[in-house]
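Researcher: Next sequence.
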Amino acid sequence: MDLRIQNAVVANLRTRPDAVQAGPFVLGLDHGTDSPHINYATPLPGAAITPDDVAGLITAFGGRPPRLEYVTSCAPDLETLLLDAGFAVEARNEYLVCTPSSLATPPVPDGFRVFAPVTDDDLTGMIAAQNQAFGGPASATADDVARYRRNQDHGAVQITAQAADGRYAGGGTSTAPSDGVSEVAGIAVGEPFRRAGLGGAITAAITSRLFAAGVDLAWLEASGEDSWRVYERVGYRAAGKRLYIAKY
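Model: Next structure:
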């Protein structure tokens, strides 16, 4: 399980427009954004890694703060090397997985429409709702829309929710499937629309579309107890551990 997830992370980062490989690391860079949640690296599972490799990784970021996300069992000695190089742990998360047999699809709450965005207006509204839900500005740039379009072209699933009055209530995405695996991410519901069941409906809609496209293993990470419960109700179960670590 861990190896499948880590290999999928590597494959996803290779789809970034400015991705590079630095020794045993893949850097998923996108020069169109400064977001550290998009611009990060991950190790090739099972690769031998040295302090010189870590130094090369830092250089390869080209002045950006070097940051990594990875399944810990796939590079068990890497954390020590990174700490020795001045990195600091951001988070240690459990990831959860869902299979076609465990997925439970809840009904869409009354008064909402859950659907795949097609137009630029839909994408703009969705991204703005996600940004605001995560504490950012309620806006979306042309680069944001282009990034979502590019991910669609690679096979990513995107789902948004819209209230009856036309307001975009939230959304979520997936990574492009790789070897039957895809990450579900960015699940967000705006403050006025929470606790109605939208988070579960969005998550289930993305996951079911992935399974319909041939994915057999979907995974995600929960940011807190509330989201953990939402994902468990949809059919996700804890399966492994990941590390977020960076040097700022």
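Model: Helices lie at 2-14, 51-60, 78-84, 120-133, 142-153, 198-212, 225-234. The mean pLDDT is 96.
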